[in-house]
Amino acid sequence: MTLEIQNLHVRTEDREILHGVDLTVRKGETHALMGPNGSGKSTLANSLMGNPVYEVTEGRILLNGEDLTEADPDERAKAGLFMAFQYPATIPGVSVANFLRMAVNAGREEPIKVKEFGAMLKEHMELLRIDKAFTSRYLNEGFSGGEKKRAEILQLAMLQPDFAVLDETDSGLDIDALRIVADGVNAMRGEERGFLIITHYTRVLNYVRPDFVHIMIDGRIVQEGGPELADELEQKGYEWVREEVAASAG
Amino acid sequence: MPARNPAVASAVDSARTAAELVEERRRAALEVFEAEPLPTWRRSGFWTTSLRGLDLDALEPKRYEPGLPEVDLGDEEHAALIVQRGASVVHVDVFDERVTVMPLEQAAEEHPELVREHLGKRLPHDESKFAAGTAAFWTGGVFVHVPANERIEKPIQVVWLIDEPGTAQWAHTLAIVGEHAECKIREYFLAPDFEGQALHSGAFELYAHPGSHVDLAHYQDWGRGEVYDLSTRRVEIRRDARVKWVPIHLGGRLTKQTLDIITAEPGSDMRHTGLYFTERDEHLDLFTTDKHEAGHTTGDTVWKGVLTGDSRASYEGLIHIVPKAPEVDTYLQTHQMLLSPKAKGDAIPSLIVEVDNVKASHGGTVGELDPEQIFYMMTRGIPRAEAVRVLVEGYFEEVVQRLEDPGLEELVRRRVAEKLKGAEDQVREFIGERAEAA
C-alpha cells in the first residue's frame, strides 16, 4: 500500500515548477519533505490533491496502484488521500460540525449515525483540546491561524485517510499549539497510515519524528536520508544543501 | 340627540370620508396613469429596465369565486390567512380574533378612521405611472390591523396569487401595527408555471406604531411564466419601534421594485435583509432606500443575490440620512454572486448623508464562486455539484436565518436547492472542469 509520485512535472500558466519529482510513501511511514520557500513543496501537495491551478505535464501519481493523475479532488479523497492545507479556505454559512458530517458522509455508503458521529467528534476534539463551541462556528471564518490548523487536523482525525499530506501545518503555530497538533498527528500514526509532512522548519520534526527526510530545492528533490538529515539541516541550513548540490553537479 | 350619538354620527361621517377618499384617490390616480408614458428605467447609462416586452392592453383583472386555492406557504399555522387570486379576494380566515384581516375594500367601510389616517400616507398616488395605476385600479386589497399591546405569535399570511396568463393584478396592502404590539406578517407572491404574460402592480405600506415589533417577510416566486412585477413597498417605523424585513425574490420574468424602509422617529430600528436568485432570462431591478428621518435611529441592511442563466439583476441600495438626524448608526452591504458567464449584474451601495455625527457605512461586492473554496471542499470528498450547492446555501444562510421562521426558511432553502440543481450544468461549465483547465 503506497503513495507513489513518479517523475512528476507540474506547471502553472507561466512556468514549470516541479521538474520531475519521485517520492514513495508506504503505509506506516512518515516522510518529511523540507525545503526553502518557493522550492515547490506546496505545489507538490496541491498537485497530489488535484488543484486545477496546477497542470501535470508529465509523470504519474499512484495511490495503492491506482492512477490518480487525472482524477478530480473528490475522487482522490475517496481513494484515501488527504491534505491539511497551509491556508484553508473559509466556508461561510457552514458550521464545523456540518462540514465534518458532510465530509465523513462523502466517504460512506450510508450516512453516519448521529450518535456515532457525535461520539467520534467529541473524542477527537478532546484530543486536540478544541472547545465544544468551536463546532458551531462557520468553518475557518474568523479563525486564528492556530484554530485553522487545528480544524485541519480535526478533519484528518475524522476522515482517517490512508495517506495524509500536511502542508506547512506547523507554520505560524506557537509551541503550545504545535505540541497539540503534533500530539494529534502522532496519535494518528500507525501501520495503516502514511504521512508526508511538508515543512520549512525542522522544529516540528522534534515532535513528529520522521522515518525519512527529503529535501527539495527549485522543484527537485536533491537530498534524501533518515531523520538525521533533518538534524544536519537544522545545524547547517539550506545554503549548505545548495552548496552540496552545486559541488556534486560541478 | 343623546350624548352618544355624535360619536356614531362622526363614525358614519368618516366612513363616508374613507370610502370617498379611496374614490378621490382613484380618480386622481387615473388621470396620472393616463397622462404618464410607459416608463423606462435607466441608470448610469448601461442599465435599462424596459417594459417593451409587456403587452399591457392584453391583460385584464380576472375575477374569481371564493375558495381556497392550493398554495405552498411553508408555515402550517397562522393567525390569519387572506388570499387574493387575480382581482378577487377568494379566502379570508382569521384564527386569532385579536387581529383584523380583511379586504381593503371592506376595511374602508368598517375601519374608516384607520384607513383614512394611513392609506397612501407614505405612498403618493402620483409618484409613478404604475403607482398611479395601482391606486386607480386596485380591487379587493388587503387590510391588516394589530391593535396596541397585542402580541400575536403566529404569522399573519397574505397571499397574492396569479394563476392564469392574461391577468392584471393591481394590489394594495395596508398594514397597521399598533403601539407596543408584536406580530409577524408574511406576504407571498405566487404563480404556477404558465405560458403567457401577467402583471402584478403592487403597493404595500406598513405603519409600525411606537414601540411595536414587526417581523415582516415578502416571498416572491412568480414561477416560469412571464410575470411582470412592478411594485412599491414602504415601511414606516415610529419611535422605539422595530421592524425586521426580509424580502425574498425567487422568480419573475421582470421585477422592478422600490423598497423603502423609513426610521421616522428616534429610537426606531430596522433590520433589512434581502435575497434574490435569478435564472433563465429573468430581469430583476431593485432599488431600496434606508431612510433615516430622525436621529438616534439604527439600521442594518444586507442583500445577497445569485445569478444564473442569461439573467440580469441590479440591486441599488441607498442609505439616506436627512438633516437634523444625528446619532444615526447604520450600514448597508450588498453582495452578488454570478454563476453563469452570460448573467449580468450589479450591486451598488450608495449614501446620502445630510448631517454630521452619524455612523454610516456601506459596501458591495460582485463576485463568482471561489475556485479555492470548491477545491478545498472537493479534497474532503465532496463532489463538485454538492460543493457548489453548499457554498451558495452557505452564502445565503446569513439571510435565510434572519427569517427566524423554520417553515419559511425550509421553503427558501428547498427552492434555492431546486434552482441550483436546474443550473448545475452551466455552473459546472462556468467554474471549469479540471480537464478543461489542464
Describe this structure in words.
- The complex is a heterodimer of chains A (250) and B (438).
- Chain A has 250 residues and is of the alpha/beta class.
- Chain A has seven helices and twelve strands.
- In chain A, a hairpin with a 2-residue loop joins strand 4 and strand 5.
- The longest helix of chain A has 23 residues.
- The N and C termini of chain A lie far apart (38 Å).
- Chain B is an alpha/beta fold and 438 residues long.
- In chain B, 25% of the residues lie in helices and 40% in strands.
- Chain B contains nine helices and 21 strands.
- The longest helix of chain B has 31 residues.
- The chains are: A alpha/beta (250), B alpha/beta (438).
- Chains A and B meet through helix 2, strand 7 and helix 3 of A and helix 5, helix 6 and helix 9 of B.
How would you concisely characterize the structure shown here?
The complex is a heterodimer of chains A (250) and B (438). Chain A is built from seven helices and twelve strands.
Keywords:
heterodimer; A: 250 residues; alpha/beta; six-stranded mixed sheet; four-stranded antiparallel sheet; 7 helices; 12 strands; globular; B: 438 residues; ten-stranded mixed sheet; nine-stranded mixed sheet; 40% strand; disordered N terminus
